[in-house]
Please model this.
Amino acid sequence: MFSFLILFPILFTLSASTPLAASLGSKSTDGYNIHAVLVAGSNTYINYRHQADVCHAYQVLRNHGVPAENIIVMMYDDIANNTENPYPGKIFNAPNGPDVYAGVSKDYIGDEVNPDNFLGVLRGDKDLAAKGKKVLTSGPNDHVFIYFADHGAPGLIGFPNGILSSDYVNKALVYMHNNKMYGKLTFYLEACESGSMFENILPDNINIYATTAANSVESSYSCYYDPKIGTPLGDQFSVAWLEDSDSHDLTKETLAKQFQDVVKQTTMSHPQQFGQKSLASLEVGQFQGEKSKSKIHIPKRHSRDLINARDVPLVILRRKIDRTNDAAEAAVLEKRFETLIAGRRFLESSIKKIVSQLCSYGYCSDVKRVMSTRQPLINHSTYSKVAEKFQSSCLNLGVHTHGMKFMYVFANLVESNNFTQSTLDLFLEDLERACNNHIVNHGFEAII
Ligand SMILES: *[C@@H]1O[C@H](CO)[C@@H](O)[C@H](O)[C@H]1NC(C)=O
Ligand SMILES: *[C@@H]1O[C@H](CO)[C@@H](O)[C@H](O)[C@H]1NC(C)=O
Ligand SMILES: *[C@@H]1O[C@H](CO)[C@@H](O)[C@H](O)[C@H]1NC(C)=O
Model:
């Protein structure tokens, strides 16, 4: 009796200050569950940061009460045990920060991290489920949170061995809407030129709110280069939202407020919002979990040390060269640096030759103009076919990510040509011919 009297006010205080959702995991009073898909689209140690961002996102959702079974993680998983990792079995998303790898579920690893599996996860693909793979099982009221981090190009995001177009991503989202796989959906996207994945394509009336690290014509930036780990640990936009979520009560912060905070922190690119922007008045907690928790210790601010994502491989090598006292090692690194530069020069001149050949076929009149302008991508479906042709006949952009830097020239050609199905088919053949002349078998291993 006595202890009940003491307990009662405590219980009362708890339930008054904590939303019901907290005691029920992700189940809110509105009867929705939170489901999440977290994807790192890269592999290899120079891209450490994408898997670090995704692991951190997993910790954010778990810390805020999203049940592990509702989170699907796709990450190559070649970082924690990488021979270059000085902290085996650990991944950090900030200098002196906590290990974000511990406890992360890995539902798709290695070559399973591919565009088809990502689309299958979104569509709740029955064949994948039959093979025992996790796919979205969300229903008409549920809230879905998608976070993707990798390299990008106009209308493209990368995977370790492939690419995925804006056309396919948005079709999958529309499929999810038509098949009542969510009540509300939020998509956070980190990639270069990521605004182009949703601009002129994502409908604004299907309860989807998307934010991107950059607009449609600019790079995104890595941050937190760590000399000992030898690579940037995060990306500026991603770290901005992740640390914002770490340090806020997500039942009190709206998506709009988080976006404003992220814009303030993302100094080198211009984060964008797309889709149904009225959703931004909802609490972040409705997508990232509503359990209140003690604030995560935020490491003391280091210089963010921002690097254009496209230059990261060069900057990493240059810093290693500057750091080493071993002349033999410096020579090896210097050679690698020169190979990278040569690969980039080769690619740039090849793209010019390809455009020049396409102009000679009548698809353009001024090579310089095609190379130096950036037309907004409108015909995503036609561009998607051109990008796939480039991927299959010219250069694997998943592996040779630097090629993404030049994909805008094909967006320009698509937008200036107003193709019909038959002229598009001819163009694709001509593109393949031009690539055979100028890229294939010219030793492009160095293009990263
Ligand atoms: C990393 O190494 C540890 C210890 O050898 C091992 O238990 C773990 O399975 C490895 N993880 C991966 C992803 O290879
Ligand atoms: C594009 O082609 C269609 C069909 O051939 C035509 O009706 C339309 O006017 C063209 N648009 C432009 C901007 O040239
Ligand atoms: C995109 O181009 C295709 C031909 O490749 C054409 O059929 C379609 O109408 C175009 N779509 C838009 C939105 O312009």
In short: Residues 1-27 have pLDDT under 50 and may be disordered.
